[in-house]
Amino acid sequence: MSFDVPDDLRYLESHEWVRTDDGTARVGITDFAQDELGDVVFVELPNEGDEVAAGDEFGVVESIKAVSDVYAPVSGTVTAVNEALFDQPELVNEDPFGEGWMLDVELADESELDDLLGAEAYRDQTE
Amino acid sequence: MTLRESPLAGVYDDPTLTDFGGWEMPVEFDSIRAEHTAVREVCGKFDVSHMGQVTVSGPDAMALTQRLTTNDVSSLDRGDAQYAAITDDDGIMLDDTVVYRLPAGTDDDYLFVPNAGHDGEMTERWASHRDEWGLTATVTNRTEAYAMMALQGPDAPTLLAAETDLALDDIARFEVARGTVAGVDSLVARTGYTGEVGFEILCPSADAERLWTALDCQPCGLGARDTLRLEMGFLLSGQEFHPTDEPRTPYEADIGWTVALDTEFVGRDALAAVQREGARERLVGLELLDRGVPRHGYEVTDEAGEPLGHVTSGTMSPTLGAPIALAYLPTDYTEPDTPVRVVIRGEPKEARTRATPFIDR
């Protein structure tokens, strides 16, 4: 089975993705991760204004069968959370790189992005 | 350790597999939600070959099984089945099982179905007690020889009728008949673990693929089996009871109706005392009112935060769209609609007790 791994994103080994745009990073979990979890039924996210640190867990994704921590790929201040996931957690399954996004983070240190995996490296890891 | 493999392992098309009681079994084929919904609305098929199959025959087959299970085996006519617990001297559940008195024309007299991984231990239990009590019975572990499948859902009778020579209308709930399914000599029982109309079918392992393939409907894994049984409040061995991790009597596990105190069986005196004095705790349904998913092991407290018990199984119910759970609570707290809390990652979440089944079946 092959999973969608968009070329323009960066990844954590723990299956989170980052899309950067002008000092802000949007964070979610990958197509591979949502498939592994199965039907997502609950998402716990931080509040707007909270600080997250690269490598630390920032929330929890629960599927019918499993509970998974989700990790922050970068450090910074949360500027938005995807509140749609509270009522429609299934968006994580349906559109993990789009409507299923989780957080926007204002980057504290752009150099952290260099530590993340590129699409090719992440693809190698999940194959 | 090498995992035991179902005789159907070769027919699966890329399911997610898991270790379940020492067996490598499918968790999900498509998605748990899709499989769950198929069973509630149409039909699904499960490979349950990991369940044990032990046959008991001979002059004392009934007496032996009577003395090792809590229910009244003597009440079974040929072709009847009954649910029972298997308890130790203290009345603690070692297993739960369905005992079948096999139909006429079958080589063996009784068949009982222990849980996954318990077949060896239960065969040994029957054999050693037979010897100790000087009874005459042949006990045979058929787990490797038999495949077992469950066909469950409102369309199950129609689907099975097209493949069998049996008159399915003549098989009542908790009855078993012998006939062919897809040309395969089988035992067909109107039993199951989902709350739906359905059948459990046993056949020789060598014929399992042919039978499975002929039953053309949604294949379902252990994931959907768990959400379906939980909506019904049915027990899962190792979760709701376990001889060391969760030692419980049938009364605590809310299956007191399987205990026939007027029969002689191992654990009877202990259970008579529990019945007389009343169990201090009982398994009860919970529905979470706050957001979250209650899981095995989570603490349950009263409104003030005083510990009451713990969740044994929990999930997001696909049918109700609500988080549900089973938990052992002091009997003072088991009345429906009693407010309690489930502690999820340190946060007390509002919940209330519910009668089971959670769904109307």
From TrEMBL, chain A:
Residues the record lists as N6-lipoyllysine modifications: K65
Matching InterPro entries: 2-oxoA_DH_lipoyl-BS, Biotin_lipoyl, GCV_H, GCV_H/Fam206, GCV_H_sub, Single_hybrid_motif
Boundaries of every Lipoyl-binding domain copy: 24-106
Requisite cofactors: (R)-lipoate
Alphabetic keyword roster: Lipoyl
Job description of the protein: The glycine cleavage system catalyzes the degradation of glycine. The H protein shuttles the methylamine group of glycine from the P protein to the T protein.
Family: Belongs to the GcvH family.
Record HAMAP family: GcvH
Quaternary structure, from the entry: The glycine cleavage system is composed of four proteins: P, T, L and H.
PANTHER family for this protein: GLYCINE CLEAVAGE SYSTEM H PROTEIN, GLYCINE CLEAVAGE SYSTEM H PROTEIN-RELATED
Protein name per Swiss-Prot or TrEMBL: Probable glycine cleavage system H protein
Gene: gcvH
TrEMBL record, chain B:
Record-level Gene Ontology MF annotations: aminomethyltransferase activity
EC number: 2.1.2.10
Keywords tagged on the record: Aminotransferase, Transferase
Superkingdom of source: Archaea
Catalytic reaction equation(s): N(6)-[(R)-S(8)-aminomethyldihydrolipoyl]-L-lysyl-[protein] + (6S)-5,6,7,8-tetrahydrofolate = N(6)-[(R)-dihydrolipoyl]-L-lysyl-[protein] + (6R)-5,10-methylene-5,6,7,8-tetrahydrofolate + NH4(+)
Chain ranges of the Aminomethyltransferase C-terminal domain: 282-360
The keyword Coiled coil is assigned to this record: no
Gene3D superfamilies the record matches: Probable tRNA modification gtpase trme, domain 1 (3.30.1360.120)
One Pfam family hit: GCV_T
Residue span(s) of domain GCVT N-terminal: 17-262
Subunit structure: The glycine cleavage system is composed of four proteins: P, T, L and H.
Job description of the protein: The glycine cleavage system catalyzes the degradation of glycine.
NCBIfam families named in the record: gcvT, PRK00389.1
Similarity-based family: Belongs to the GcvT family.
Protein name as annotated: Probable aminomethyltransferase
Natural source organism: Haloarcula saliterrae
Lineage start: Archaea, Methanobacteriati, Methanobacteriota, Stenosarchaea group, Halobacteria
